């Protein structure tokens, strides 16, 4: 298995280190000895066939699952046993494969919930709504309205209930809520699943801009190969809970193990042609 640093970036201390992580449910191993690193400022994609363990890996990194072995370090700090709220406060924010918004609440209120992990107001200040509570609320609203909502181009729906929005806009609102958490690593679980071509192109643009304008590192699970090959600096391939390849998109495309994982045969050329065609289509768009 060949590993390479992200394209065009010098070696740097990794922002996230996943080291020999194993996850088991009873006698079933969802993850087995998974190891990889995420460099600061990179876009890292985790790919693999259905059932490969991608979402289990995301749930383990974000703290929803506790691994049965191995370690996870963020900025060199061991976070393997930290609960999800603590990881959020440190700078890990994520979206979900299945949209996890409060459908009866407005877009603005859903986004504001993302900042709660960082609020310092105590219960008495919040109930009285004075002093620090009032200042934090004003600062939060200004940041969300002037930065996040404007950035994701959702000003026209800020007061709309989430349940009334089409799927593509709901995915954008979920990304906005994650950005409200002020992440150092933005974890996106299938950010363009179920989207049409125009929505996919918009989301790809937002992901690139999150890195360029916000300075966030992106870790994503995605099935859209054109998007993965076009955006990613580093690709990690899972199959049956194990890392079978990782490296630049070019390295991954050339790895015969990836072909066998996706096709169940040795027809590597077919998969390579499919990936290259998807990547060219993405670049052309």
UniProtKB/TrEMBL annotation:
Residue span, ABC transporter domain: 16-265
Domain of life: Bacteria
Pfam families named in the record: ABC_tran (PF00005), BCA_ABC_TP_C (PF12399)
One MF annotation (Gene Ontology) recorded for this entry: ATP hydrolysis activity
Keyword set, alphabetical order: ATP-binding, Cell membrane, Membrane, Nucleotide-binding, Transport
Residue ranges that the Swiss-Prot or TrEMBL entry lists as coiled coil: none
InterPro entries found in the cross-reference section: AAA+_ATPase, ABC_AA/LPS_Transport, ABC_transporter-like_ATP-bd, BCA_ABC_TP_C, P-loop_NTPase
Protein's UniProt keywords contain Translocase: no
GO terms under cellular component: plasma membrane
Cell membrane is among the record's keywords: yes
Name of the featured protein: Amino acid/amide ABC transporter ATP-binding protein 1 (HAAT family)
Species in which this protein is naturally found: Melaminivora alkalimesophila
């Amino acid at each position: 298995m060949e590993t390479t640093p992200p394209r065009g970036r010098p070696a740097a201390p990794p922002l996230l280190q996943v080291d020999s992580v194993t996850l088991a449910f009873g006698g079933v191993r969802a993850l087995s000895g998974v190891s990889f690193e995420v460099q600061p400022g990179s876009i890292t994609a985790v790919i693999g066939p259905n059932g490969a363990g991608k979402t289990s890996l995301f749930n383990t990194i974000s703290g929803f699952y506790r691994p049965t072995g191995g370690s996870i370090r963020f900025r060199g700090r061991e976070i393997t046993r930290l609960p999800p709220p603590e990881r959020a406060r440190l700078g890990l924010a994520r979206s979900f494969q299945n949209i996890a918004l409060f459908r009866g609440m407005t877009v603005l209120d859903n986004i504001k919930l993302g900042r709660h992990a960082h609020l310092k107001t105590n219960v008495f200040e919040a109930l009285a709504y004075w002093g620090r509570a009032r200042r934090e609320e004003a600062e939060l609203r200004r940041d969300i309205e002037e930065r996040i909502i404007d950035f994701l181009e959702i000003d026209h729906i800020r007061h709309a209930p989430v349940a009334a929005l089409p799927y593509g806009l709901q995915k954008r609102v979920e990304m906005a809520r994650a950005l409200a958490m002020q992440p150092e690593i933005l974890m996106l679980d299938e950010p363009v699943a179920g989207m049409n071509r125009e929505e996919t192109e918009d989301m790809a643009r937002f992901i690139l801009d999150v890195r360029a304008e916000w300075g966030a590192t992106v870790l994503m699970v995605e099935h859209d190969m054109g998007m993965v090959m076009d955006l990613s600096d580093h690709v990690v391939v899972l199959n049956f809970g194990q890392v079978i390849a990782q490296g630049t998109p070019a390295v991954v495309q050339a790895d015969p193990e990836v072909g066998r994982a996706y096709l169940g045969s040795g027809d590597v050329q077919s998969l390579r042609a499919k990936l290259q065609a998807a990547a060219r289509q993405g670049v052309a768009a």
